[in-house]
Amino acid sequence: MQKPVIGRCRILLPVSLFIALVACDSRNADRDVGLDLDAGAWSRHGRTADEQRHSPLSEINQSNVGELGLAWTFETGQFRGHEATPLVKDGVMYVTASWSVVHALDAVTGEALWVFDPEVPKELARYACCGVVNRGVAISNNAVFVGSLHGWLFKLDATTGEIIWKVDTTARELHYTITGAPRIVKDKVIIGNGGAEYGVRGYVSAYAIDSGELAWRFWTVPGDPSLPFEHPEMEVAAKTWTGEWWHVGGGGTAWDSMAYDPELNLLYVGTGNGSPWSRTLRSPGGGDNLYLCSILALNPDSGRLVWHYQTTPGDNWDYTSTQHIMLADLEIAGSLRKVAMQAPKNGFFYVLDRATGALLSAEKFAKVTWASHVDMATGRPVELPASDYDDQPKIIQPSPNGAHNWPPMSYHPGTGLVYIPAHDTAGVYGLVEDFKFQPGTWNTGMSRSPKALALREKAPPRYPYLLAWDPVAQKERWRVDTNGGGILSTAGDLVFQGNINGELVAYAADTGERLWVATTNVGIIAPPISYSLGEEQFVTVVSGSKFQPPDRDHLVNHGRVYTFKLGATLPMPDVGEKGDPNTPIPENFGTPEQIAEGNELYHGHCARCHGFEAVSDGVIRDLRYSTPGVHAAWNGIVLEGAFAELGMAGFGDILTPEDARALRSYVVEQANARRPR
Questions:
Q1: 560-586 burial code (b ≥16 CB/10 A, e <16)
Q2: By C-alpha distance, which of 138, 129, 221 is closest to 178?
Q3: Secondary structure of residue 97 in the 3-state scheme
Q4: Residue 468: inside a domain, yes or no?
């Protein structure tokens, strides 16, 4: 497939399609009134405003899914960081790649129509907690909206990709990022942000679709209480905090999940973890620290809070509630209830009354050791004594990676099941001594002491699986062992999921039987979608994940869009040569003091992406397998940002050549000590 040249905007648009798009604009006067009524489209992030991620299409089903073949593919030109949900409307697919680049493609053929590059400065990669990712766009009438990694919100002409307006949504002096997809609610576009560990204070903003003017902003945690509160909710929240949290931001960033109920006129927003992670450091006198780790129900017209539910009061473990929120109508105890459902990091599956926020049920869907249960009388988790790590490091489940992270789940109205990309994970939590906030670096408050690092050897290994969960009975119905990403369910009684081994798999929605697989050899963590055009049903997924299996780090990870349909026979593209997993290991060269210094530097700057003790947990590259060329260019990579295009920014402003050598000595020592031979 011929690719467009990436620039600010490059247009490759057939005249016939241009005419069709202009004609379609007059049909789109139903601006975002609620659910998407077009069964063949996928024009919202979760297909519909309730974010169920279920397609009503059934041409592809259990009886013929084996006939699926590759219809077309498109290479994005970027590596890793591909987590987007493509949107399809009026025959055009809009999909984002890493660095917030937007591609418009013909949804039938994959032909490139235009590309928009927001020109994110590459040095900002070091402030993106979890990669230079982008999870998608929003569309309304003949406009496409995208948030960029460096905090801008753009409105683009859907036909040409030209900028209509842009607005800076964040404070330049702080390290905010945007990785999530915007949402459209009536005449507003809603966007959040990330960056909690870098000392920011979370908020969600609404902008007028037509003008880009700020309509309202809801702050998720309070600022300096000696200053006027931005809105009444912050005065209430401030009473649940102690100490001087505002000097370290507080966190609570709304970096992903949202849903909308047009009947109730409520916008649901998930909020993130505290900053630093330890509440003892953040709020030494205790308190719930509102509105961390909460589901907020906001009036989208005014931005005022209608209700909130906090899944992890006084968050102490990075248990964000930014994971997927879904709305559904469920029969519970003989009554049809309007509910909101979430499976956040903390390991409990929550079912709430979405009109009032009342807790209807909460049960563990994964291994949990931080709390025994959720008290239905109070709606609060009952924390276990072993979850307190103030005095000594503890192994606690789930880990900061969570029992479920950002890859979206799906609800199938036919089976009544929710399909969750789940994990059993364990993390070592320990309180750092003499915590001092460091601007521009990763501030978690977690200890990297020898005792804490040694405890990691005893932590249970990560166990990922696809879980079919009954939200009414709050019970597991089936599970399949797979290291996979986001979920799509369809009326053909299928569940589609990609995995980091480079497969897109179709499972039977009722039993979990593996019915079909396409092998791309490119890691997939993004959620698939399905749409129809010309009476044909398509299934699309974006590959090029930042995740890699620790033992297969040699896999190529080019970003591609893969689209399948029945009877298609296009061969899978050559994704390039794989690297050698048996790269030679350099001899140890560091002194004990140098290696110890490298240990500290590594866990302060590198571990969040490359894995603790230089053992990749599936995020970015396992440095133990670094090639001789990487070792030879080490200073250029670490200090000067030689790999900036891949998301690896330089740290030359805070690290010295001696620091870089210490880092390498530690990585080499770990390769010799811990790499399989």
A1: bbbbbbbeeeeeebebeeeeeeebeeb
A2: 129
A3: coil
A4: no
pTM of the model: 0.90
Q: Is residue 643 part of a domain?
A: yes
Cβ proximity of 243 and 278 under 8 Å: no
What is the rounded distance in angstroms from the CA atom of residue 332 to the CA atom of residue 338?
10
CATH of the domain at 635: 1.10.760.10
Range of 606's domain?
Answer: 592-674
What does DSSP assign to residue 3? P
Type of residue numbered 453: L
Distance, CA of 179 to CA of 100 (rounded, Å): 8
What pLDDT, on the 0 to 100 scale, is given for residue 625?
Answer: 81
* Residue range 357-397, pLDDT digits in tens: 999 999 999 999 999 999 999 999 999 999 999 999 999 99
Question: Which of 2-16, 167-181, 441-455 has the least mean pLDDT?
Answer: 2-16
Model confidence at 64: pLDDT above 50: yes
- The catalytically annotated residue of 36, 318, 493, 553 is 318
For residue 375, the one-letter residue type is: D
603 within domain boundaries: yes
DSSP string, 314-364: T--S-----S-EEEEEEEETTEEEEEEEE--TTSEEEEEETTT--EEEEEE
Rounded distance, CA 220 to CA 146, Å?
22
Contact 542, 88 (CB under 8 A): no
CB pairs under 8 A, 24+ apart, for 538-541? 538/71, 538/107, 538/563, 538/564, 538/565, 539/60, 539/68, 539/488, 539/496, 539/504, 539/563, 539/564, 539/565, 540/86, 540/88, 540/93, 540/564, 541/496, 541/498, 541/504
DSSP lists the bridge partners of residue 497 as 487, 505
Q: Can you read off the two tokens belonging to residue 130?
A: 């979890």
For the cut 80, the answer to whether the pLDDT of residue 4 exceeds it is no
Region of 100 on the Ramachandran plot (φ > 0 left; ψ -120 to 50 alpha; else beta): left
Contact 135, 147 (CB under 8 A): no
State the average pLDDT over residues 416-420: 98
Distance from C-alpha of 319 to C-alpha of 272, rounded to nearest angstrom: 7
DSSP-assigned letters across all residues of 166-197: EEE-S-TTS--B--SPPEEETTEEEE--B-GG
Q: How many alpha carbons lie under 13 Å from residue 563 in its C-beta half-sphere?
A: 27
Q: What is the pLDDT of residues 96-151, one digit of tens each?
A: 999 999 999 999 999 999 999 999 998 887 777 778 899 999 999 999 999 999 99
Let me know if 375 is a catalytic residue. no
The 10 Å Cβ neighbour count of residue 529 is 28
DSSP 3-state of 122? helix
Provide the sign of the torsion angle of the four alpha carbons 615, 619, 621, 625, taken in this order: positive
Q: Comparing 47 with 450, which gets the higher pLDDT? A: 47
Say how many domains are in the chain.
1
Q: Is residue 538 part of a domain?
A: no
Q: In the numeric block, which tokens belong to residue 330?
A: 């469920």
581: amino acid identity, one letter: P
Token pair listed for 289: 């620290």
User: What tokens appear for 571 in the block?
Assistant: 């061969």
Q: What is the pLDDT of residue 610?
A: 78
